[in-house]
């Protein structure tokens, strides 16, 4: 049976961190569509016209582009036993495409929804930094590096991502409300398991503990039905 997990929530809710922890725990790949796109840009690989400008503006990349990237990745051997999706699906069209892809394999997604107040998100993202070399994420408030503005792992100077300015953050949140929040309702009404976790308080590790506990409780509830 395939472990198909969608980590869902607003930008800055901690999807990437929780997906990485889940990946390490379950031994299945963490697939971040945003990181896949940024990696292609870093490597100088071609992208469809307008995609880079769309990303810099905080808008959503066209569904067709993202769907093709995700399906190519899910067909790789390391995802045969399962995967954790971070940043996909973001629109109803993407959710329906993934639902069809999984349905053809007799599977359904398990959705982990990270709930968080938008004011906390803006504070978090404004303080986020990333190592340009190893891609490790930090937060100057909640997860600062040991040496100010330097990566703990390789000593590289940390940078702010172009999509973490306050103006872009607000546009991303607006896009989330318009395009992505309806995806949650899609999952709530199509028989998928939706597990909700408070992601607004505590360290990433304590949030992950709550997430694991919620998943265990949901498993027990499912087995009792």
Stretches where pLDDT is under 50 for at least 5 consecutive residues are none
CATH topology value of the domain at 3-116 and 194-224: Rossmann fold
Tell me roughly what share of residues is in helical segments.
40-55%
Number of strands: 7
Return the string of H and E elements: EHEHHHEHEHEEHEH
What is the fold's blueprint, element by element?
Elements: E1 3-8, H1 15-26, E2 30-32, H2 33-42, H3 51-56, H4 63-74, E3 82-86, H5 92-103, E4 110-115, H6 118-126, E5 128-130, E6 137-139, H7 166-189, E7 193-198, H8 204-224
Helix pairs in contact: 4-5, 6-7
Keywords:
225 residues; two-stranded antiparallel sheet; Rossmann fold; 5-stranded parallel sheet
Question: Could you characterize the architecture of this molecule?
Answer:
The chain is of the alpha/beta class and 225 residues long. It has a domain at 3-116 and 194-224: P-loop containing nucleotide triphosphate hydrolases (Rossmann fold, 3-Layer(aba) Sandwich). 47% of the residues lie in helices and 14% in strands. It has 8 helices and 7 strands; from the N terminus they run βαβαααβαβαββαβα. The strands form 2 sheets. Strands 2-3-1-4-7 form a 5-stranded parallel beta sheet, with helices on both faces. A hairpin with a 6-residue loop joins β5 (128-130) and β6 (137-139). α4 (63-74) runs parallel beside α5 and α6 (118-126) crosses α7. It is globular. The model has no long low-confidence stretch (mean pLDDT 87).
């Amino acid at each position: 049976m395939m472990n198909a997990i969608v980590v869902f929530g607003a930008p800055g809710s901690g999807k990437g961190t929780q997906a990485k922890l889940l990946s390490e725990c379950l031994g299945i790949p963490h697939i971040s569509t945003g990181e896949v796109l940024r990696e292609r840009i870093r490597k100088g690989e071609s992208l469809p016209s307008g995609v880079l400008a769309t990303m810099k503006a905080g808008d959503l990349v066209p569904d067709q582009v993202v769907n093709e990237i995700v399906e190519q990745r899910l067909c790789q051997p390391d995802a045969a036993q399962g995967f954790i999706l971070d940043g996909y699906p973001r629109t109803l069209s993407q959710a329906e495409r993934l639902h069809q892809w999984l349905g053809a394999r007799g599977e359904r997604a398990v959705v982990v929804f990270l709930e968080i107040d938008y004011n906390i998100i803006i504070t978090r993202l404004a303080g986020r930094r990333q190592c340009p070399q190893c891609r490790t994420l930090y937060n100057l408030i909640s997860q600062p590096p040991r040496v100010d503005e330097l990566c703990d792992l390789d000593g590289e100077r940390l940078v702010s991502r172009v999509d973490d300015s306050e103006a872009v953050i607000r546009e991303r949140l607006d896009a989330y409300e318009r395009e992505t929040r309806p995806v949650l309702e899609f999952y709530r009404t199509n028989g998928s398991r939706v597990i909700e976790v408070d992601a607004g308080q505590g360290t990433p590790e304590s949030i992950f503990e709550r997430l694991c506990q919620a998943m265990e409780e949901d498993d027990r509830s499912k087995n009792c039905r």
